[in-house]
């Protein structure tokens, strides 16, 4: 099962690469077929086997020999690792499947936000659909999810208003995640997005990769906090409650 999740993660990761480069440009993710960005040669299924192709062809296009970025393989690998971790925790279950889709969505949002400083609305729509599916699956959660939705929207609207550090995309993302994770989840994600953001920014500034004046997108921190919640949110909350009581 773990091997299956991993391979599935690689294949979906390959599709995410297409999404990351096409969605911000407004190009359909389904057609036209993938082609080499250098020579324009159509890529066939055998040219797009994740990671394996990169290694077999030394990171070069089979048709024109132009080298392409290792970034594609890294994204595929990262997605596969996320699937593997979800499989370990949830196995072959409803939440196992839903969280895989969600993890891919969060990965895509992060990378587009880092590259283009935007969070496309279409991705939030996908998130809202995931939220709706969870509510349909377990309708007892409906109030929790709707309050989470309202809390996510309110907290980040207020923060955006006062700090000016967040954009409309961040507010919409938090609203969507509120719907998916409910009240407890969205509060966890809020706290940890700032925590992770502070740590990463301090690191980037200390390593002189970024300066204090640079704009750093906030979306990836929200996504990392959401992934943290999927993997060990309940455990962290338990430890925290033990400490304060
Ligand atoms: Zn080529």
Protein model, in words:
It is a single chain. By secondary structure, the protein is mostly helical. The chain has two domains: 92 residues, no CATH class; 129 residues, no CATH class. Helix content is 71%, strand content 0%. It contains eight helices and no strands. Helix 1 runs parallel beside helix 4, helix 4 packs across helix 8 and helix 6 crosses helix 7. It starts with a helix and ends with a helix. The mean pLDDT is 92.
Structural class: mainly alpha
Poorly predicted segments: none
Question: Secondary-structure element sequence?
Answer: HHHHHHHH
Percent of residues in β-strands: under 5%
- Radius of gyration computed on alpha carbons: 19 Å
The small molecules bound here are:
zinc ion
- Helix content, binned percent: over 70%
Major sheet details:
none
Average pLDDT rating: 92
Query: Treating each run of at least 4 consecutive H or I residues as one helix, how many helices?
Result: 8
* Structural domain count: 2
């Amino acid at each position: 099962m773990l091997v299956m999740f991993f391979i599935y993660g690689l294949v979906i990761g390959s599709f995410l690469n297409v999404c990351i480069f096409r969605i911000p440009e407004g190009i359909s993710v389904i057609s036209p077929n993938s082609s080499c960005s250098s020579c324009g040669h159509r890529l066939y299924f055998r040219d797009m086997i994740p990671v394996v192709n990169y290694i077999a062809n030394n990171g070069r296009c089979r048709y024109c020999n132009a080298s392409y970025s290792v970034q594609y393989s890294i994204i595929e690998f990262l997605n596969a690792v996320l699937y593997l971790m979800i499989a370990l925790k949830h196995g072959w279950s409803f939440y196992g499947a839903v969280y895989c889709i969600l993890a891919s969505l969060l990965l895509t949002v992060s990378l587009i936000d880092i590259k283009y400083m935007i969070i496309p609305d279409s991705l939030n729509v996908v998130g809202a659909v995931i939220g709706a599916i969870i509510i349909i699956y377990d309708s007892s959660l409906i109030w929790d999810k709707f309050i989470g939705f309202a809390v996510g929207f309110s907290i980040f609207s207020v923060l955006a208003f006062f700090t000016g550090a967040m954009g409309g995309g961040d507010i919409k993302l938090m609203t969507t995640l509120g719907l998916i994770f409910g009240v407890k989840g969205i509060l966890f994600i809020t706290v940890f997005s700032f925590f992770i953001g502070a740590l990463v920014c301090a690191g980037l500034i200390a390593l002189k990769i970024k300066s204090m004046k640079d704009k750093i997108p906030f979306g990836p921190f929200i996504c990392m906090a959401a992934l943290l919640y999927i993997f060990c949110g309940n455990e962290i909350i338990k430890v925290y409650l033990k400490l304060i009581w």
